[in-house]
Task: inverse folding
């Protein structure tokens, strides 16, 4: 499966005010929908050219040449969501309880007019199905967003850089 990481573009300007607030609100909504396993609603935020990428660590990786934890194009992401939406994905029965905190949000306008949001997060996952263990998933996220004709944002790129991405990880059977 070939995925395409958008080419790096220099930021033209930092974004503030109402536009920053709108991006922040989008990040909060996206996180809440994922935390609540509302995957079909989460999927509505995604563009047709979406890339969803979790590299193996925080280094400078090429998603087409290096091993990734997840490297989904839109088609593969659609399949992942369909599996999760059945409620029968064995690693998520019953569904893990999740909550994430998001902070240090930086928003920039890219040269093509799209917006890039960088943020730190900590996700807490209670694995009810197996050990009852509380897993902690810290990292940094890069979102790339475009305005849709109705004024809402569509997400076309999400890169999740886990602090412990180079370590042995438990199953990542949810949208991080």
Result:
């Amino acid at each position: 499966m070939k995925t395409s990481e958008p080419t790096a573009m220099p930021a033209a300007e930092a974004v503030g005010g109402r536009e920053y607030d709108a991006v922040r609100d989008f990040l909060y909504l996206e996180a809440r929908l994922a935390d609540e396993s509302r995957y079909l609603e989460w999927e509505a935020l995604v563009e047709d050219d979406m890339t969803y990428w979790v590299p193996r660590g925080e280094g400078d990786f090429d998603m087409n040449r290096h091993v990734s934890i997840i490297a989904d194009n839109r088609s593969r992401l659609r399949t992942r969501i369909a599996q999760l939406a059945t409620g029968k994905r064995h690693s998520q029965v019953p569904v893990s309880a999740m909550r994430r905190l998001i902070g240090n949000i930086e928003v920039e306008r890219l040269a093509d007019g799209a917006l890039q949001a960088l943020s730190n997060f900590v996700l807490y996952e209670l694995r009810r199905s197996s050990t009852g263990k509380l897993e902690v998933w810290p990292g940094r996220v890069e979102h790339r967003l475009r305005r849709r004709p109705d004024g809402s944002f569509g997400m076309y790129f999400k890169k999740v850089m886990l602090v412990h991405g180079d370590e042995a990880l438990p199953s990542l059977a949810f949208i991080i």
